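Can you give me the bound-state structure? Components:
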Amino acid sequence: MSELTLERGLAALRAEIDGPVAAFFSSCVHCGICATACPFYVETGDPKYTPILKVEPLRRVWKSEFTLWGRLLSTLGLTKKVTDEMLAEWEELIYDSCSMCGRCSLVCPVGNDIQAMVRKTREGMVASGHAPEGLIAASVRAIQTGSPMGLQWKTLQVQIEHVQSSTGLEVPVDKAGVDYLAMLSSMEVINFPEYLEAITKIFDHAGVTWTLSTQCFEATNAGIQIGNKDVAALLVQRVVDAAVKLGVKNVISPECGHAYTAIRWEGPNLIGKPYPFKVFHIIEVLDELRAAGRIKTEGMETDRLSMHDPCNLARKSGVIDQQRNLMNLVADNFVELKEHGKYQWCCGAGGGVSSNERAEPLKLAAFKRKKAQIEEVSPARMVTMCATCRTQLEEGLEEFNMDIPVVGLTEMIADHLVEKA
Amino acid sequence: MSDPMDFLLWTKGPAFEWAIAIFALGLLARLLEIFVIGRRPNYAEPRAGEWGPGMRTVFTRSIADPGTFKSAPFNVVVGWIWHVGFLIVLLLFIPHLELIKSLLGFAWPGLPNPVVDLVTAVTLVALVATLVHRLTHPVKKRISTVEDYVVWGITFLVVLSGYLAYHRVINPYPLALGLHILSAEIFLILLPFTKLTHIFTTVIARWYNGASFGRRGVAS
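Here's the bound-state model for the whole set.
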């Protein structure tokens, strides 16, 4: 990688400024309402975590270079400059204290999409050498090994063999021409191997043709979390190449939030063209199968269940009703968290926060908002559909000695499939 | 310009023309700054169009969601009070409507003076409350700049000078009216170069927000 400098950082920020950014900064009235939507501010009470303040580097570049008035002031030396010292100070604000959950973007009275601007600002942070070590390491591992956790196919192969022996079903690998290419996340393979077993059972049950790819199994995108388009594009291209090689019609993003937004929404723009296939989150696929009557379940969960909507899935991708349809299929006693769907609160671990070891205390602080939400409805168990959210919920609940197990929705559906005659 | 009448005539004549010209050109520049950059093409298959959801958000974002109302009641309530008050006074005070008619050739019915008088008083109180909030709330204190206070100052002055002129507190009257008109002109001149631009660009920002969420299937 060529040298990371302030100049390159400024150039990256310049390249990110577009009409919406200009409209957003032109409209901000410094009302501070975005802070009330941010779990990092709400749970720490520190005003430096006010979302709009986090994108100050981007604002300064816009003001001094993209406005007539700012350029005039700039030539007179009257605008504030972005310096290396400033970016060093902002690293914590733009990475450690922001999961890019997008709640601020949903409540800003003037309509500023602050989350989108955080994503853009990260491009400048990476290019100027101000990204956290943890995210740099994850990105390097993702480029070199295909997985941000350094996981290799042989580990997944062991999982596949376990699943095959416990279910008696084949886990298809490198099958060309099938309907779906299923992607995984390393976090899932390591922490939640039940997911692979669940989709194997469900797809067999529903008669879905699918495959894994030895060429690329990792759906997550460290490039998007750290904020580097080159890395992000390279990782997306691997998924596209695998899908094209196998000639599949659809690609399934696993129970992972950012992997879905990465492939579904950013991916085509990163590679500069539309895909020759469609992209779905596993929950969308399951709900389509349900609607088509291809999933037959029996029995219901009877304990009090509540659900955590992953930000990337609900607020940022519009997948809100699907998980509720599926819950209603197998849960008798489902209670919503008070603010849910597009208004849900982040678990605190997304947007690369969980890969950034330094951010651990802030991650736990932000979780307190979720914890308060969970306490309001006192469920026996929580259900979610993102491996990062699930890990954060498990760790957070344990930290506060709350005995509330967390389950993945896909595996819960798999547990209720009607056995084949 | 030692004569109050000369001062009034200056504010109504050359000063008004300059203010309108700077406002119009400045605002045009601001809008061009936004529209000339535009957006890159988006290749991700959308769930819905952008135009409808964008327009929806232009309107719906005026109403705070229940969670925001609960966590920032002061911002929401006082913000509404003074914005609505300011608009009522600006657009429904009969002398303002006479000015509008002389400029545009048409106008609409106004409200009785005592009603506008009361609304003005409420607006002034609400504006003072927003200043106290800005000076004391930790988030607002942290993110506020000199510009925020300058803009507050001129907004308050416009309303206050109108209120004082109406009540004949400043004498002679031409001086009072001239000061009110001058403060409105300073407001117009500052508008394109400060956060007052939001009066116009909020519509654009909300549209972009609604369009971006909308194409992903979320009503924002």
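A couple of observations. Chain B has one domain: 4-36+45-215. Chain B touches chain A through 59 residues (CB under 8 Å).
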